[in-house]
Design a protein that fits this description.
- The protein is an alpha/beta fold.
- The chain has helices at about 15-20, 25-30, 40-50, 85-100, 130-135, 190-200, 230-245, 255-265, 285-300, 300-315, 320-330; strands at about 65, 70, 120, 140-145, 160-165, 175-185, 205-215, 265-275, 340-350.
- Helices cover about 35% and strands about 20% of the residues.
- The strands form two sheets. A seven-stranded mixed beta sheet has the order 5-4-3-6-7-9-8. It has a two-stranded antiparallel ribbon with strand order 1-2.
- Strand 6, helix 6 and strand 7 (about 205-215) form a beta-alpha-beta unit.
Amino acid sequence: MAARPAQQPPLLSNEEQTAVGILPASHWQQQSTVEDPNDDAASSIESFMSSTASLSSTIFEYRTIHGRTYHGEIGNAESWEPNDERHKEALDIAHHAFTVVLDGKLYMAPLDKKKVQKVVDIGTGTGIWAIDFADEFPNAEVIGTDITPIQPSWVPANIKFELDDCNGEWTWPDNTFDFIHLRMMFGIIEDWDALFRQAYRTCKPGGYTESFIKCSTFMSDDGSVKDDSAMAQWGRVWNAAGKKMGRTFEVYDHDLQQKGMEAAGFVDIEAKEYYIPVGVWHKDKNLAEKGLWWKIMMESDLEGYLNYPFNAVMGWTPAETAVYATHLRKELSNPKIHGYFKARSVWGRKPE
């Protein structure tokens, strides 16, 4: 039996949406979705490809919103990502896409494998990052936390998963972890400064905390992402939804990772920027591979990504969102549209 959906904040009025540059949902139904017979997107992709444990049963009382399931009620937790099988597969694809962006690495902090004994992955999702890390650090104890129990039961002996909302008070003692990892937590966190204060308290002296996140807005340097395009509207709708939820998607834009770490007391803070051209339009083979995987990730469950922020929060109908998704897919496959995202890894050390 599905639990009731969480109460949503008031929807933006048409006037409020217009004020922040969001086109009405009906706009996308008025645009043609017929494929251009001269579109060479498919051939571009083909060319590129050829060249290259025990939980309470109440936890499983998932909420159902427009046909997709979401986590059960746990504190004030509110995640915009579904937890059904289709989205679990999408999350595993996303893990690979993120790893490709980091050039095959799981982390950027200068960890000493001989000294890392206890690690936590906050917002672990399907647990795939935590599992890979546990394999790489067989002598470390790895914990993955999330608000929904979608992790596998067959895992390395040195890993376990816990149900926890990271927005609440962390229950671990001071100085517990050698490494605290957070990835793509935008639209989830209520207070980023409070989050990093919790991380600082539970991080061991000499240990590291690391956060990876991408920006919420498509960009282009040549103007190919037009103002009225589905790509341009992407960030505007997501950002407006984040404001209504009280959980911002503009973490990258406002540099909340580094600011939060500095305020918490971390030192030796470093950041690495990433450029992600979405699709295979970029001439650089390495960047095109990153862009291809990011496109695959987005398309693996585009409706799942859009369902909560667009439908439940912004008040679009599933039919309107489906038409918008069709336009977005068309743009993602057009090699003449040079849209890209930026992303950032930030890591810092707790003083000894």
